Structures are given as C-alpha cells and as structure tokens.
Amino acid sequence: MASKNHNHNHIDDENHINGDANTHIPKKPKISSFITESEIQSEFSHHDPAVARINNGSFGCCPASIIAAQQKWQIKFLRQPDHFYFNELKKGILRSRTIIKDLVNAEHVDEISLVDNATTAAAIVLQQTAWFFKEGKFEKGDVAVMLHYAYGAVKKSIEAYVTRSGGTALERGKAEGRKVRLAVIDHVTSMPCVVIPIKELVQICREEGVDQVFVDAAHAIGCTDVNMKEIGADYYTSNLHKWFFCPPSIAFLYCRKSPKSPDLHHPVVSHEYGNGLAIESAWIGTRDYSAQLVVPSVLEFVNRFEGGIEGIKKRNHDTIVEMGEMLAKAWGTHLGCPRHMCASMIMVGLPACLGISNESDTLKLRTHLRDNFGIEVPMYYRAPKEGEVGAITGYARISHQVYNKDNDYYKFRDAVNQLVGNKFTCTLLSK
Asked: Where do the record's region annotations for Disordered lie (predicted)?
C-alpha cells in the first residue's frame, strides 16, 4: 500500500473550496507517500483490541483523525454559536455537498441534501408519497413496490406513510389494475447482503411506467460504484458513516432535478421551510452538525490510500471474497452469493450441525460469539425448503474494511470449529 509521490486532496475545514463550489473538487497537492499499515492501525486504535470486528456494515467506522476534525467543529460552535451559525455552517455544509455531488456524479449540487441517515431520507421521500395520496394526485389503492429483502426500517416507513395514506402492495394493486406510483429498490441489501443490478431494475421500472423510483443504498457509497447519471433513479440515498469513514450519523439524499420533480421537505420543519430540501436539511434547529462538516477531511483521509476510495473498494472486495472462501472451505459450506454480487460484505454458510432453526438462534449465537470469543458478526436465518435434509440454515455476514486483518477471520474460523468440535448446538443456548 505504501508508495512515493502520491497526490491527495488536502482541504482545510477553515477555508473555502478553491474554484466553483457547484462543479469542482479542489486540486490535489502532493504528499510524500501513501498511508502505512502502522498509521492505519493508529487511526483505529480506539477500536476494542479484544474484538474481531468483522461487522463494519452495521455501524461503519471513523478514524481518529476524523474524530479530531469533528471535535474541532464542535468546539468552534460551542465557542461562539452565533458566529458559527451566520458565518460557518452553511458554507461548510455546501462544501460537503459539493464533494458528494462530484463523488456520485450528480448533475448539480442542488440535487444533494445532507440528512442524518438513510432512514431519514426514506421518510422524506415516503412522506411526499403520502401527501400525493392525501391531495388526490395518487388514487387510493395505487401501488408501491419494494423488494422482499428491503431494510426493515424502510418496510415500516412504507407501512407508516404509504399504506396508511391509501397505497397498496403490488399483488393487490395489480389485481385491481392500479398504477405503480413508487418503486423502492435496494442497491446493496442488508441481510442477506447482495449487490443488486440497480441500473437494470431502474430501467425496467421506467419501461413499466412506474412514476417514481427510490433507491435505498444505505451501504453503497464507499462500498460499490455509485453514479447518479448512470443509475437514473429519481431519489437515491446512502449513508456516509458506514463505508465512507464519516462519524455517525450522516447520509446524502439525491433528488433528480426535472420539470416534474416534486418539492420534497424535511420532516422536521424549521425556519428554512420552503427554501428547498437541501437548505431545509442544513438547518433543522440547534443540534450537532459536525458529522456533516467533516466530509472534506474524510476525502483527505481516503486519498491517503492508493487509488483513493476506488482502491479501498477494490481491496475490500478482493479480501472479503478471499476470506469468505477460506471460511466456507474450513466449514464445508458455501458462499451465499456469487463473488461478483458482493462488494465489501459477503454471506458465508455456517455448519449445519450448529442447529440454527430460527432467527432467535442467530441472535443467541451471535451473542455467544461476542461474549465468549470476542467476535462481532451478524447472522441470518434461512428457513429450509420443503424436503431439504441437512440444509445450511445459518449464514454469517462478514465485512472487510481497511482496519481488518486476516487474523480477525481466522479467529472466527477457529471459534466455529471449536463449537463444532465440542458438539455445540444452539439448543444449548436456550437452557
């Protein structure tokens, strides 16, 4: 990873971005070398050293240098809040939005809003759908579509906003000849995890006359390719605290500008209401905005790595496939998807003899591994199909981020092998 004479972005949070804030990331001054392995470990030395943390997908990670940058923003606000509000906040958030606009290849910075997380973004989009039902723009019984493996919070949001407003699920709506008003599609599903062919699905939605397409891509930025012009969705959201090293919590919501674009609003109404979603989201009352202000520092951090964020994504993918195949071979199981359908996470089958028979077993086994072996990894239960014998019913979702070492996965391998050798089954955890 180390190399000489590499360029990377250096953006001082105190200063303006050079050039047109609507179009360009500043030029990259030179530094002497890439980040070293010891520097990486120092950046994440606040992680619990006793835990093999192979679950970056749930909460992400934040380097020490970014935590320090965040604290500077927090102190700046606390030192003189009025000056911060009138002279720093809007400019700082615009800098962050401009960087994200370039990273995801949006047409204009006004298409990018910063919100707390992807769940907030879903609420913003689905709230608009609910208003369309209430105002009669959509007819009662019209359809909203989502994937079976949609994130649980998004399913609840559809229930809370769309169903209560008169929307129906696809099967009932199609039977009654209703229009499909909204399609909610994942880019990287959470559990089980798999990269969805998003461009193809968006195109199918267009061909089928779906009014609006919303892509829930909570895991995407920093994990897989994200290009707004190629994907072509109306709305797209991704967290920056999962795979882009920001502190929790921050996400962007892309809203494609077009003559037919509706006016979306933040669910927390404050003084900026009516000035556009990006401006509304930049001030929803007194709160900590520091996670939204450190994006320039995060860009500087990722560009210390060979290939920047693209290099990080490739190395994460290659390593997680390698570690997943190592685990599957050690346990006599298989991966949960083809290697080309994973990004920085992959599903690995657990030995059938562990006796995972329901979702409760996966939670108990996960806790057992955390408490007794120092391993943090999410697990998924797959009900056996009729007639299956000795089926793999439990899968682990392993992640790889720059701080992980091969020993994290060997530790997991050895722990499961120890359980198998001791004839452990999940029924023992209920006693």
From this structure: 1-25
Q: What is the pLDDT of residues 392-410, one digit of tens each?
A: 999 999 999 999 999 999 9
Query: Three-state SS for 300?
Result: helix
Q: Quote the CA–CA distance of 45 and 135 in Å, as a whole number.
A: 53
Separation of alpha carbons 415 and 324, rounded Å: 15
Query: Which option is the CATH number for 308-430: 1.10.3370.10, 3.40.50.1000, 1.10.3720.10, 3.90.1150.10?
Result: 3.90.1150.10
The helix/strand/coil state of 263 is coil
How is residue 408 written in tokens? 């994290």
Domain ranges of the chain: 83-299, 308-430
CA distance 274 to 286: 19
Question: Is residue 88 helix, strand or coil?
Answer: helix
Per-residue pLDDT reduced to its tens digit, 296-316? 999 999 999 999 999 999 999
Paired tokens of 89: 């906040």
Is the predicted pLDDT of residue 259 greater than 80, yes or no? no
List the Cα angle 183/187/193 in 5-degree steps: 120
Assigned CATH for 83-299: 3.40.640.10
Tokens 């994907």 belong to: 231
Cα angle 189-190-196, degrees, rounded to a multiple of 5: 10
Beta pairing partners, 277: none
The pTM of the whole model exceeds 0.70: yes
Is the pLDDT at 319 greater than 80? The verdict is: yes
Residues listed for the chain: 431
